[in-house]
Amino acid sequence: MVRLAALLVLAAVAGPALGQDALTQDLYASMEGSVRREYDGLMQAIARGEGGPRAGSEKMQQLLKVLYHNKAVLFASCAAQAERVRSPQAARVPAGQNLMLTTCVEEKFAELNKFSNVRSYALAFFPDRIERCGEASRLRDQEPLFPPYGFLQLPEPRLYDFTRYNECLMRPESTSPAAQ
Fold first, then answer.
1. Number of neighbours of residue 86 by Cβ within 10 angstroms
2. Which of 6, 43, 101, 151 could form a disulfide with 82 if both were Cys (CB 3.0 to 4.6 A apart)?
């Protein structure tokens, strides 16, 4: 719940958008400082040994960068969606009281959190599905619109539909889109 409250503060900091076409991109860009603080805090915790023995590996760091990039885009898209459905005559409410925003964030982040668990399971039992399902679940059309923040240093930005990714990882191989 504390994490959700912190994320909702990001929406308040993002401020009003200038136009609907670029709304999500504007919100995404405005969140960079907040996302960096959260990411740096996690990296410091890992450096102190609070993330487990494998958390500091290069492969895990790259995964965390991909997840933070996706998390920022998911949040920005929820904030933009909430702004788009708000009537121009409606008074602004604090982000934590914006039902559209909080519902969207809870749903999107639940899928992201589920992915972390499903991915761990898939790594143990069918690691070959991870890359194939990832490719089948990418949102390639959105990747150029939301370049990763400079501090994430991703050689190839990858945005995912985590609902699709989770379903693909858990689907029997013969019916998985990644198997086709």
1. 15
2. 101
Which sign, positive or negative, has the C-alpha torsion 112, 45, 96, 73? Answer: negative
- The pLDDT tens digits of the residues spanning 36-62 come to 999 999 988 888 887 665 665 788 889
Q: Give the pTM.
A: 0.79
Checking if the pLDDT of 176 tops 90, the result is: no
Crossing angle between the packed helical segments 58-85 and 23-30, to the nearest 10 degrees: 130
Residues 6+ apart with CB under 8 A from 180: none
Neighbours of 96 (CB within 10 A): 14
Contacts of 6 (CB under 8 A, 6+ apart): 38
